[in-house]
Amino acid sequence: AMYPSKCVDHGIVQVLIGMAGQDLDGGTYSGAAWSLYHDQQFGYTTIFANQTYLHFNYFHNSDDQIADQFTLQK
């Protein structure tokens, strides 16, 4: 999460996924201090959630391998 323009703990978590335009964007956000993961491949995501946690997986479309994942706990 960010406040004001700095990463902070215990804030709102945002996930931005825009794989449909992957070939159109040169990755202008790559290397930004607030960006934890940046990838230029097509892929897909799965989300599992219950009352206690949310688990997010991002897979590369080319090999179906997990490229990134995280879990948020209440």
Automatic annotation (TrEMBL):
<dbReference type="InterPro" id="IPR029052">
    <property type="entry name" value="Metallo-depent_PP-like"/>
</dbReference>
<dbReference type="InterPro" id="IPR025733">
    <property type="entry name" value="PAPs_C"/>
</dbReference>
<dbReference type="Pfam" id="PF14008">
    <property type="entry name" value="Metallophos_C"/>
</dbReference>
<protein>
    <recommendedName>
        <fullName>Purple acid phosphatase C-terminal domain-containing protein</fullName>
    </recommendedName>
</protein>
<feature type="domain" description="Purple acid phosphatase C-terminal">
    <location>
        <begin position="11"/>
        <end position="69"/>
    </location>
</feature>
